[in-house]
Amino acid sequence: MILPIVAYGDPVLKKVAKDIPADYPKLDELLQNMYETMYNAFGVGLAAPQIGLDIRLFIVDTTPFAEDESLSEAEQAALTGFKKTFINPKITEETGEEWVFNEGCLSIPDVREDVFRKPTITITYYDETFKEHTETYSGLIARVIQHEYDHIEGVLFTDKLSSLKKRLIKGKLTNISKGKINVDYRMRFPSQKKKR
């Protein structure tokens, strides 16, 4: 089932999410719905807060990035089919010299900005069967994971921008929070919640 994606301005996007137990109700169904929602919106990652749940869970599938012809064959191969579920993740290390990449977010449509992040991360997490993993990633895969991880920490990519950039996009962000935007996927705006 395709779920509505929570728009900028909803308080759930600013909350630090909570760990979930292995017997979290209907986890398989939730994951299936999240993947369906992400693919429907042409995203490469989706975190639980983006569908209104303040739990430490996100999914990634970097396959669409593999179509970027400016990447090396090795980078394209690494991105192709990289599909993972991260439950109760903890980034334990971020290393290297920060690099810039133009990021966007399904909760903040039509806003793209350059964000600096460290290139290599080590993360400990549970997969969908609650098996624990500790893995190290670099490049675009690391960046997608960092972006989604920020969501469960209550951080948006716009929080990482300079105060000047924030001022320049303030009007756009206000319009998104009010639902004054056209998107081709389901969204839930903060203004809609109050009317119920």
TrEMBL record:
Its cofactor is Fe(2+). Fe cation binds at C105, H147, H151. Its EC number is 3.5.1.88. InterPro entries: Peptide_deformylase, Peptide_deformylase_sf. It is an enzyme of class 3 (hydrolase). Keywords: Hydrolase, Iron, Metal-binding, Protein biosynthesis. Binds 1 Fe(2+) ion. It catalyses: N-terminal N-formyl-L-methionyl-[peptide] + H2O = N-terminal L-methionyl-[peptide] + formate. SUPFAM superfamilies: Peptide deformylase (SSF56420). The keyword Metal-binding applies. It comes from the Bacteria. The keyword Iron applies. The active site is at E148. One of its GO terms (molecular function) is peptide deformylase activity. HAMAP family: Pep_deformylase (MF_00163). Belongs to the polypeptide deformylase family. NCBIfam families: pept_deformyl (TIGR00079), PRK00150.1-3 (NF001159). Removes the formyl group from the N-terminal Met of newly synthesized proteins. Requires at least a dipeptide for an efficient rate of reaction. N-terminal L-methionine is a prerequisite for activity but the enzyme has broad specificity at other positions. This is Peptide deformylase. It comes from Bizionia sediminis. The gene is def.
